[in-house]
Amino acid sequence: MQAAQSDLLSKTSVRANVHHYLRSFMVSAAALPAVLLLASCGGGAASSSSTSSTSTTTSTTSTTNNAYAAVYKGLTWGSGTTVTFPSSCTMTVTSDGVPPHHDPYYLGAPSTEYPTVVATTPSGLQLAVTPYTPSSITSSTNTINICPSKASSPTTTNLGPIGWVISGEFLYNAFEATITPALADNVSYTFTSGGTTYTASFIDKCNSHATPLTSGYTWHLHGVPLCVTATEDGTGPSHIIGIALDGYPVYGGRDINGNIIDVSQLDACNGITSATPEFPNGAYHYVLPLNTTNKYSSLNCYTGTVSTTLMAEMRKKACRMRDGKYNRMRDPLNDMNMNDRKLSENTGTAAAGSKALAAVMR
């Protein structure tokens, strides 16, 4: 796994740039029934570029005295992702969307090409074995503000992308369209083909999966990107692993001393103000907790000011497919009382189909 992601991060480059900027800039501490084709929470076509990019980070000549923006200009992104800075407080991310880690097969929504249901998640999603097809993954280009400021009140996160991980994948909130946390709705199916045994999962070991092939095929995460943090952090302190739509950085689940951060330490949006390797004097940032499969596995809201236009654009990439047709789905975070609603955290086992993989292997 580490070899597959060795090109994601250059720690030496990141830290050198970070320390350079930090000498000048400081931040003060401050329900849906089970249906055959109900798909995962993502979907829709991504915007702009359809051409894969191989650059990592490109900066303009403009300067800024904002510590967040300064640090972001020192980050190294994954192969296939290009980052540019049109102005001192804006960043454009162009990504081919191809994950650094993937299995040969995964469990996805049944389709005309792969119709055989072999597994059902605890929430009732029926799934079919689907081969990984990188050429079908949708690329995207989006621009965000990177000089974040706290809003007067939090904004509920939208369905669809809520930020990026430095691997180039999108980060989504915790929920599937079934109003169930995705990481609690996982299921796997093991089969043999050509003498080789494979295991296909709804959520892979990196905490990622894909939207349906028919709905944009966007690879995304619903929690801490374990394959990224394994390479970047190990058991040490967490480093920046992403940026949310409101411009605040996203970290893994360990503090500056390498201790696991408990959800109780975070605010309602999974945020905290504390020291990090990039901000040793403390800064507000989001945390994707370790060993968490409930609604706190990802951001429930944005603390900072976020563009409603950008949120609406990202919402188009959310799953709105039922019975193979687009259909407006309810946003779980707008439909539920987040303080009182109890969400399923069960883990499931696969239900084998009687004609498993006949369509996939033909």
What does the overall shape look like? globular
Structural class: alpha+beta
Strand order of the largest sheet: 12-13-9-8-14-15-17-16
| Intertermini distance | 30 Å
Helix segment tally: 6
Largest sheet properties = 8 strands, mixed
**Considering DSSP H and I runs of 4 or more, what fraction of the residues is helical?**
10-25%
What are the segments in which pLDDT stays under 50 over at least 5 consecutive residues? 1-40, 42-64, 320-362
Mean pLDDT: 75
Proportion of residues in β-strands = 25-35%
Secondary-structure element string: HHEEEEEEEEEEEEEHEEEEEHEEHH
Rg (C-alpha, Å): 20 Å
Number of strands: 20
Q: Which key features would you list for this structure?
A:
disordered N terminus, eight-stranded mixed sheet, 6 helices, 362 residues, disordered C terminus, 20 strands, alpha+beta, three-stranded antiparallel sheet, single chain
Can you describe what's shown?
By secondary structure, this protein is an alpha+beta fold. It is built from six helices and 20 strands. The strands form six sheets. It has an eight-stranded mixed sheet with strand order 12-13-9-8-14-15-17-16. Strands 1-2-6 form a three-stranded antiparallel sheet, with no helix packed on it. Strands 3-5-4 form a three-stranded antiparallel sheet, with no helix packed on it. The longest helix has 12 residues, at 11-22. The two termini are 30 Å apart.
